[in-house]
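User: Sequence in, structure out. Go.
Assistant: Echoing your sequence, followed by the structure tokens.
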Amino acid sequence: MDDKWIIAIDQGTSGCRAFAIDSDGKIRAQKSKVFSPHRPQKGLSFYQAEQLLTNQVEVLNALLDEVGPEKAATLAVCSQRSTVVLWDKNTGRSVAPVLTWEDGRALKESQAAPITQEEIHQQTGLFNTPYFSAPKIAWCLANHPEAKHAAETGVLLAAPVASYLIWHLTKGSVFATDPTLAQRTLLWDIQTRNWSASLCQVFGVPLNCLPTLQPTQADYGTYVYKGVSIPICVCVADQQAAVAYHALQAGQTTVNYGTGAFVLHHTGTQLTILPGMLSSVTATRDLTKQAFLLEGPIFTAGSLLEWLKTKNIEVNYSDLDPVATSAQNPIFLLPALGGLGAPYWNYKVSVSIENVTQNTQSADWIAGALRAIACRVTDIISYLRLNHLAVESLITSGGLSKSDYLLQSQANVAGVPVWQLPEVESTVLGSAYLAAYYLQGNLPPWTVLPRRKILPTVSASASQIQYQLWQQFVRRHLAV
């Protein structure tokens, strides 16, 4: 594949993207289109399926037109997790809105499921919340007659976004998903590593509407574009793609700062179920072999800066660091759009603010927001340590990892070295990395070095005091 490139598509929360990556792991071309979910009110976040499909295929085809489809060695498909698409296998048309991972409208369906949190945590590694797919599917079946009819007549398909895209790219010939995405449905048993008939019954989801399980790296069919057949060989969740690119090993920890932030701690081949944390799986070449992660989702990261804009705070991503550095009196800001994720799992708390005065400047808001994101990551690091799991450094990725101010704040409050990678597109490069591995049969000679090491600039005691102040702030608002 030396003279050919890997094409990787990434359907994220806020956009559709396609990249061409060469045999050295370098991005040679890219196309993107902003495509955010509709958020008409708090707790609602959804796409229209056909619009999502059209936008992602347009971006993919535009990239192929630029580089030439004959240049494509293979196609890797990466997508956001927990977002679920319901469609009719005969017509290919959606039968319900595409509820994103952010969408919390299925709270009643979640609460009505006859299963305890302890039982579902043991079976799935997750918690029974409306943010995972199963309650969303149940809500769609209860509220959209077309979805209910499709289920009753056996033509319903329900699957993660990547599976929906692959089904359409292969003209309906492949309906499959991998464990990294299957797990987020809340219908996949992490102990048996298979779909669970009992969980389907609990949520009222027909087992026959779910995709076939395949390894992350496998034959996912072929996309034919302008007469050129391009094999699809990767289907993967975005966070696990990032883990693959980081080459994360047992005992190591990574954080991906995106719309939300995700802290992932590799536990090797040992499945660890820890209250307050999610257990998830890494990408795999073999369904009988699996490595595991402890995961701490943070609902609000980059979205906090977008929220500042709605409060008439000017946020310019190109000068984020100098503005934040100029702050004289950073505010305290609890980033709780949609509640707090790990380890609190509190959906009632909302954004809270302290230390605002008549002299507070935009820089104080921005610095406070970046510090808050670093503190939320530290909440999870602290929780892991309390449970005897060592976190000795952090590997970072995602758009906000470009911010030196954020990463220095992270190093200081967590009291650990932080590694900044030269390339922030770890989800795309991770899926391409997995594709190269599949094609070549061995690990590609890609390297994420040289990494930049950011050390704490405060003493361990000063770091501890910083974090204690944060904890006191959080406790005040959790108690409200």
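User: And one key feature?
Assistant: Residues 185 and 283 are 16 Å apart (CA to CA).
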